[in-house]
Amino acid sequence: xxxxxxxxxxxxxxxxxxxxxxxxxxxxxxxxxxxxxxxxxxxxxxxxxxxxxxxxxxxxxxxxxxxxxxxxxxxxxxxxxxxxxxxxxxxxxxxxxxxxxxxxxxxxxxxxxxxxxxxxxxxxxxxxxxxxxxxxxxxxxxxxxxxxxxxxxxxxxxxxxxxxxxxxxxxxxxxxxxxxxxxxxxxxxxxxxxxxxxxxxxxxxxxxxxxxxxxxxxxxxxxxxxxxxxxxxxxxxxxxxxxxxxxxxxxxxxxxxxxxxxxxxxxxxxxxxxxxxxxxxxxxxxxxxxxxxxxxxxxxxxxxxxxxxxxxxxxxxxxxxxxxxxxxxxxxxxxxxxxxxxxxxxxxxxxxxxxxxxxxxxxxxxxxxxxxxxxxxxxxxxxxxxxxxxxxxxxxxxxxxxxxxxxxxxxxxxxxxxxxxxxxxxxxxxxxxxxxxxxxxxxxxxxxxxxxxxxxxxxxxxxxxxxxxxxxxxxxxxxxxxxxxxxxxxxxxxxxxxxxxxxxxxxxxxxxxxxxxxxxxxxxxxxxxxxxxxxxxxxxxxxxxxxxxxxxxxxxxxxxxxxxxxxxxxxxxxxxxxxxxxxxxxxxxxxxxxxxxxxxxxxxxxxxxxxxxxxxxxxxxxxxxxxxxxxxxxxxxxxxxxxxxxxxxxxxxxxxxxxxxxxxxxxxxxxxxxxxxxxxxxxxxxxxxxxxxxxxxxxxxxxxxxxxxxxxxxxxxxxxxxxxxxxxxxxxxxxxxxxxxxxxxxxxxxxxxxxxxxxxxxxxxxxxxxxxxxxxxxxxxxxxxxxxxxxxxxxxxxxxxxxxx
Length: 805
Fold this sequence. Notes:
The chain is α+β, with helices and mostly antiparallel strands. The protein contains 26 helices and 24 strands. The chain is elongated.
């Protein structure tokens, strides 16, 4: 039998020997100890093998909510729920229920039943007599002996149907299925509406559906499929399974639907995750199920998912105290400051994103390093995400939950989430002393806010949150506990105004590391947005209208206008006592990326007028439209010279060069563009142009690789695929290149694969240092780009939290 660390028991350590069990190896002594070594909050004892009077080996850990975990050493870290090896599923006022044991393949198997309560004595219930059916024990001893018998001594599993004193069945049988059942079959491939309809059809056609199928049918048959079909059509609705949270996520276009439609979809998403949560609790997950608990047991497991939400509170506090700082403390080549803006904000996001709740948690937050305060706002949990029916054991049928009860349950669940988010906030950093959590109702535009002091939360609300684990929502325990914390204060931006100022309004000097990284000395030098009343912009707007009327005169006026602005730029450069370069950037991120193309670290950047870029582009377009391609190429080169990171400048020059069939230069310009590309649209266009250019240059294999690297789903992708098929036919190939193979071929030809490491590191290093230095406006743009590049959920949360007004 596997045992763990041997601990020495002090004279005062509380311990108790267990009776000798029938299956127990000769000469061994087992027992329980508590108050002897570190133990997680909410846990009641360790199961041990006594070696001698003062020494014991750790074997198991008993929680206060009906779970036992294997343990090899003392620890105050709370184990994950899914690691439990023995679980009690309670029914009927917690006085009877099922016993589940995790098998060797990781699945939960129903072994027997139990009767009793944790406050009194407990006894196993089975058709065949066992040691535990003949002995009534208090909770600690009952759990320890059950663990030893079922998980250590490997007693055979007995599938039974227990009976109460009246002889009526009270504990449903765990069913061995004739064939495995895959509840979410086809959900990855089919439209969401079709997948749900197919699931319902399969279950209704089955003459003897299993308990988990009946449970899934009950939840999914509540969905208004007609409404869902409409939203799938107009709202770009699609279903994703997020691996790191092991849950379903519905993607949707919010702009195409009302807030009520969004809430409806969240209700659909909740039902998907509720069924998945039950499947995970019985050890199946998305895999086919070969055994199934009863429909009633599934309903109870579902209810437990809602009632146990505050179990996250203790875990969050302990993780915050003992876990290393955020795993993304150095996303590029530069590490964040421990306890700084990046560290705290990323830690908050990581803790919240790791919650994996049954309902969609939408939130944003702000942090003030100077005052050690944090504020969070989350969208109110809607009643549509709560159970609309519960399985009634007396009638063996589902009973409806009225709207009022669902509203009250949602309100209580929301209050428990308030506790969880406050715990995440305080866990993010020991320096955070105050926290505000606000529930926001986007439909009714109502708010409820709660303010917490760190010490008061730890002393008063942390124990209350742990007491609420497993307590029915109908009791309203969290709502009562939070009344004293309610405040009229609203969620708002709490960071100091200068930290969120746009570069135009920011006179602060950059730290030395940022000056070297960004080729700028002051924040205002990083501004790229022109003044709305800029004289040049207004004059250019007047010139634009003259082109169609008199092209020759428009050409002359544009040329003179460009010369005037170039002269002004040259004068500004001559007035500088340091090396400078005048550049136009399309956005703030383009300015952050510009140093990738400047070799001399001492060079500083002057901002080219927006009107100069627009006028140069207008002149180039005029030449292209009238067939003066050579002149257009000349102007397009000038355009790219002054806008090195502009995708529009790259596209314009590529288009002009392709007109002249100068495909070797198209390749050079597209490669240059890929060094600065991070947006999928731009990447798709550049690879498409590269592919066609390589084809015309005779390098068909590299052309095929570039076609393969056009991101799927973009506008140009369909054209690229059609041309790729034609090229494959000419090359005599039947199968397209694999992605990895295409990358290897492209790299061998010197084609950058975006986002390149140098680009990502530049953005990530800027994000970390800008945030830690308190330049949050620019940091937000960098974090947003990082999220677009790699899709890490935490980056999306931080981006939204930094960008909100």
